[in-house]
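Subject: for your reference before the review

Hello V.,

The reviewers asked for a structural picture of the protein, and I figured it would be easier to keep everything in one thread rather than splitting it across files. Below is the amino acid sequence we used in the manuscript, unchanged from the supplementary table.
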Amino acid sequence: MNRAIALAGPREKLALYLGSVCGLRIGEALAVNDGCLSGNRLKISARVNSVGLVDGLKHGAKARSVTVNINELNKLLRALPDRKSEFWIESSRGKRFSRNHYRSGI
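And here is what came back from the structure prediction:
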């Protein structure tokens, strides 16, 4: 994992953090936006699937909340190139990734 993090770009480092440290699924990480963060908590209430952005989580749950290290998260967010959308993990065109497109790049 340390090698993957060392070789990763800013967007990929954020994705690795959200997945490995925060426990988010790929679709949940792709749906995270500025409105999800409150203090040191991320409220996860949407996901990206093969259809697109959908409310609710896998298996019918409405939402869940995870604790983040706010200092580490802010460091990762500051390292991102200028964002063009509300989503933290976006394509180089400033659009939200589709789940299938992002998975093919991993």
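For the response letter, the relevant points are probably these. The mean pLDDT is 85. Residues 33 and 87 are 4 Å apart (CA to CA).

Happy to draft the paragraph if you're swamped.

O.
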